[in-house]
User: What shape does this take?
Amino acid sequence: MKKVFVTRKLLKENEQKLEELFEVKLNSNDKIYSAEEIIEGSKDCDGILSSVTDPINAETISKLSQSIKIIANGAVGFGNIDFKIAREKGITVTNTPDVLTDATADIQILLLLGASRKAYEGRLAAETQSWKWSWDFLLGKQMSNKRLGILGMGRIGRAVAKRAKAFGMEIHYHNRSKLSPELEDGAIYHKTLKELFEQSEFLSVNCPATPETTKIINKETLSYLKENTVVGNAARGDVVDDDAMIEALKNGTVFAYGLDVYNGEPKIHPEYLKLKNIFLLPHLGSATKRTRWDMAYRATKNLEQFFSGQKPQDQVN
Ligand code: GLV
Assistant: This one.
């Protein structure tokens, strides 16, 4: 029986399924392991089932036991794993696409709405019990019938577009390449990020974290935005230069920012916690029971396929 090191505590049903298929080393206390603990704990294993919180960089990979042949990441993003170095070492890396598309697109809409309609300030005011309705009390920006720019029109970006259309929004996007008319579904392609930013009244960040997208939202690119743009980020903190975003939130380029993901999670830039035109969530994009079950199941399926000699359906390297 193959042996799998599971870095984080999963839902009970998922752990039971893994136990039926493999010998497993579970993390019943759900401790967040350091790189050293992952290396040490997985020494006698054939594979690792990892999570977004695991730092599996080039150095960690170089120190992993030769017996490790697969890292099945229980997430659609795999920026936490140096998948190229893993390939060089003969380690297959997989992710879990599709199953979290809807949950994450739902959260993206929540971020855009929460930010634009001042949900955070509203909650603070409600807590005082002394707020009063008035004609100009906490006026937000209406999302309906506006132009939405989507940066990264993959599965999640397209699911956001579908939802936004129900708000009567006009969809614009920038992507590495133009999509087929069928996938575009009426969305307007912009060849450059500058063109997209200049058009957007709302901006949905849905691109993966890669070396190319690191801090793609920075002082220069933020200057392409119209005054008072609403931005939502359910992708990765790494794609945003926080200092530049904070400046844009203070000078009114960005009306409000809704975000679920952070540079150096779980830490959050202290300025974000001071600003009012912010709507923060603690990385809840895929946090529904159904979705988490599906993600762990899909990672398990990838392990099962790999160990039975097939190419796993979600191999990324
Ligand atoms: C969540 O952030 C994921 O990448 O699955």
About this structure: The radius of gyration is 21 Å. Residues 59 and 118 are 43 Å apart (CA to CA). The domain at 101-280 is CATH 3.40.50.720 (Rossmann fold). The longest helix spans residues 289-307.
